[in-house]
Amino acid sequence: MSYYFAVIGTQDNPLFEYEFGTSKQGGDGQSRFTEQAHHLNQFVLHSSLDIVEEVQWMNGQLYMKVIDKFFTNYISCFMTGGSVKFLLLHQPSATASGTASATRNSTSVGANPTSPQTEEAIKNFFSEVYENYVKAIMSPFYKVNMEIRSPVFRQRVAAAGRKYL
Amino acid sequence: MASSKASRLGEEYVWRTRMDKVNAELVVLTYGAMVAQLCKDFDSDYVKVNQQLDKMGYNIGLRLIEDYLAKSNTFKRCSNFRETAEMIAKVGFKIFLNITPTITNWTSDGKQFSLVFDENPFADFVELPDDGRAQDELWYSNILCGVLRGALEMVQMQVEAKFVSDVLRGNDTTEMRISLIRYIDDELPPEDD
Amino acid sequence: MTVYSFYIFDRHTECIYTKTWLPQTSSTSDGPSSGGGGGGGQQQQHGPPGTSTSTSTTTGSGSGSGNTTMQLRASSADDAKLIFGTVFSLRNMVRKLGGDDDAFVAFRTAHYKLHYYETASSLRLVMLTDTGTPSMRNVLHQVYINLWVEYVVKNPLSPVEHKRGVGVKNELFEMALDQFIRGLM
């Protein structure tokens, strides 16, 4: 299972990106994207912004679950009140998806990207990131739509990733 | 010992009943916005920003001392500089910021001490700009130095106050050094000609 | 109890505020009856010491001639200077005899009593009352806490140094002071 997380500003400008892998079930926290996927991920993620615009008015929730799918890439979205988007691209690894289809009712996080367990885990991840995002932008030296360079924020995103995904 | 405990309880009482409260985040954001604006106005000349903060603090201190004297019901002067330090840390910071910095590192002549801030309400959420200079040049909370300088000048003590370390810069503690330069004499009425 | 006058001196020894209340005992009043500037024209039996010298020259005239008002102003400025000189010397003498913590509180003459209060920031408040008045130290302390700090110091538009009284004579302070003192009488 590999993840690509990005924060997108109000003008659809990227503010922050971070790539990591699962830490559950003995995962080492490293992403397993292929060389090409690194660049592809950015396209996939940003192309889903159109869908975000459609979905965001549907139910008034900040967390919009999985909104888009591109082959085996699933995109979950969380939008802050200030319309800054948190997007998480998750890609079940080939072997994981293989076992998922084998054991149909697998409940492991990530094995089945649309299962309630996965949705819940991602929700928790987003909430924690949101909390830390608020702290990061409260810094007086941060300006709206500026790239988030804070190392503390990066650490905390990583920690949230380890904890929930 | 007993009397100092009584005075601390007294301060707690003053803090709870007679002080107007203000939302901490409002203070953090207001002060932060001010420092950030200064950095912008002075083109990230942090030495100038420090000076400016100190000046602002000085002007605040000149007035704040009166409020301090009124709220703390101070009737007499501190008899020595050690007592002054105690009052600054345990009464002054308590009533205005609700923190109590620790007093340490006295010099043997009793004219210099350090205030170590375990918490600094101004610095919540703050991360200094990562331009490679702010970490070495900007004293984010420098306004406090000015406040102390101004306030003490009004009660006839000329001091020098400056930060020597700050957790925002990656130091282990936030420490302010205060040195007494001299006691200011009473001004005499002008001679009648 | 009667309050005659009230003075504030700053740490530069300058008189930055003066206010006089005329004694209510005199019935032949045709001058301004409430605390105007430097003691309008009025006959008085046991007036405060400073103003009695000046008022004697302006007896019974609500609007004194230019000359007398000048005299009046000059003499009230002199009063302030004299008062400051007196309390300053007394305070220094008291400290010399009684140690640095000792404070001079009041003195009394046959005609009036002078109350003195000094803050740690070297602001000096002086009040002249009749002789029967008990200690006004607390009153002066209240004036400092509730009026001076609230209405003068905390007014962001008033300067820190009140040269020639700038910033002290604001409406809030004057009204509150007048009310407070009249409430005592």
Report on the structure:
The complex is a heterotrimer of chains A (165), B (193) and C (185). With 165 residues, chain A is an alpha+beta fold. Chain A has a single domain (2-164), classed as Beta-Lactamase, CATH 3.30.450.70. In chain A, 38% of the residues lie in helices and 22% in strands. Chain A contains 5 helices and 5 strands. A 5-stranded antiparallel sheet of chain A has the order 2-1-5-4-3, with helices on both faces. The longest helix of chain A has 22 residues, at 116-137. Residues 96-107 of chain A have low confidence and may be disordered. The longest helix of chain B is centred in the first third of the chain and has 27 residues, at 46-72. Chain B has 193 residues and is of the alpha+beta class. Chain B starts with a helix and ends in a 10-residue tail after the last strand. Chain B is globular and about 55 Å long. Chain B has helices at 2-17, 24-41, 46-72, 81-97, 134-137, 143-154, and strands at residues 102-104, 112-117, 157-165, 174-183. Residues 26-47 and 50-65 of chain C have low confidence and may be disordered. In chain C, strands 2-1-5-4-3 form a 5-stranded antiparallel sheet. The chains are: A alpha+beta (165), B alpha+beta (193), C alpha+beta (185). Chain B: It comes from Chaetomium tenue.
Number of strands of chain C: 5
Radius of gyration of chain C: 16 Å
Helix/strand class of chain C: alpha+beta
Biggest beta sheet summary of chain C: 5 strands, antiparallel
Count of helical stretches of chain C: 4
| Count of β-strands of chain A | 5
Provide mean pLDDT of chain A, rounded: 83
Shape of chain C: globular
Spatial order of strands in the largest sheet of chain A: 2-1-5-4-3
SSE string of chain C, helices as H and strands as E: EEHHEEEHH
Poorly predicted tracts of residues of chain C: 26-47, 50-65
SS-based structural class of chain A? alpha+beta
Can you identify the CATH class of chain A?
Alpha Beta
Q: Give, in spatial order, the strands making up the sheet with the most strands of chain C.
A: 2-1-5-4-3
Radius of gyration of chain A: 15 Å
Notable traits:
heterotrimer; A: 165 residues; alpha+beta; Beta-Lactamase; 5-stranded antiparallel beta sheet; 5 helices; 5 strands; 38% helix; globular; C: 185 residues
